[in-house]
Design brief:
Blueprint lengths: L14 H8 L2 H22 L10 H29 L2 H6 L7 H23 L1 H4 L3 H20 L3 H11 L5 H12 L4 H23 L1 H13 L3 H4 L6 H38 L6
Helix pairs in contact: 2-3, 2-5, 3-5, 3-8, 3-9, 5-7, 9-10, 10-13
Length: 280
């Protein structure tokens, strides 16, 4: 590929398999998008929100979408666990570029979910318009990151993708929190889930912060030494700089957002405890 043509050092990874797999990307993404849509259809037919005491139109719509969100979060978290448990992250960290079929398959499932959500937002725009700006911003960044990682197979993006997949550990409990608050369940159950949410979001914040030492190590190991530039054609060095800047900015942005959201959760928890009436 032209990205690596004329480089000082050969990009030592299976470029032929990588190129071949890129041709499958549109088909994979289309299939995954259709599967997410089918899952939503099945859930909307088989799970009736009214049976949980949820009758408002907007809330009924959110029930099924939150189920899809939870399913994707569990999938992403498990994929991250498998990736690091197999030692693939450690292997990739020693390389600058690599091809991982597992990475391409997992990201195809996730981008399929994002595209499904675009369709969901378009269909239920009236109910979701208040959250539209933040959701679209998140999804647009994800789509851009996805295609950047597919066509620039740098190990930095791959490792960070699976690392931040681990932060999905809190998403199911966030969705449960909303559901238990709206449905006919005891307040005690909602409170217990809230404690688990605080714990898992704390883990989410720790995972986010711990990406910073890796980012610094990667910079010193592959960027400062010039390894990453040696394997790329000089006319594409600007692309490398943009790639590195984008991921550094992305990590900083996620750190800011997760810190802010955790602060909001902790403040709500504190207010709930502080306002609890004391027994006489």
């Amino acid at each position: 590929m032209e990205l690596f043509a004329g480089s000082k050092a050969r990009a030592d990874f299976d470029q032929e398999s990588w190129r071949s797999f890129l041709n499958l990307v549109p088909h994979l993404v289309a299939t995954c998008t259709a599967c997410w849509g089918l899952l939503h259809l099945l859930l909307s037919r088989s799970v009736k929100a009214e049976s949980f005491g949820i009758t408002k139109a907007k809330e009924k719509v959110c029930v099924h979408n939150n189920m899809i969100s939870t399913t994707h979060a569990i999938f992403s978290f498990c994929a991250g666990v498998v990736y690091f448990a197999q030692g693939w992250g450690r292997e990739a960290a020693s390389e600058v570029f690599c091809f991982s079929q597992f990475f391409h398959l997992v990201t195809a499932v996730s981008v399929g979910y994002i595209l499904y959500d675009f369709v969901f937002l378009a269909i239920y725009f009236e109910y979701m318009k208040n959250q539209l700006a933040t959701i679209l911003a998140h999804h647009a960044i994800f789509i851009f990151t996805y295609f950047l990682s597919q066509y620039v197979p740098c190990t930095l993006g791959m490792i960070l993708y699976f690392w931040f997949s681990l932060t999905e550990v809190s998403t199911p409990f966030l969705n449960y929190n909303w559901f238990l608050m709206k449905a006919n369940f005891s307040k005690e159950l909602w409170k217990k889930n809230g404690y688990i949410l605080l714990l898992t979001f704390g883990i989410r914040w720790i995972i986010t912060v711990s990406s910073l030492p890796f980012l610094w190590w990667y910079y010193r190991e592959h960027v400062q030494t010039g390894k990453i530039y040696d394997q790329v054609a000089p006319k594409f060095w600007w692309l490398v700089d943009g790639y590195l800047f984008f991921f550094a900015l992305g990590v900083g942005g996620l750190l800011f957002l997760n810190t802010y959201w955790y602060y909001v959760l902790l403040r709500k928890a504190y207010n709930a405890v502080a306002s609890k009436p004391k027994k006489s």
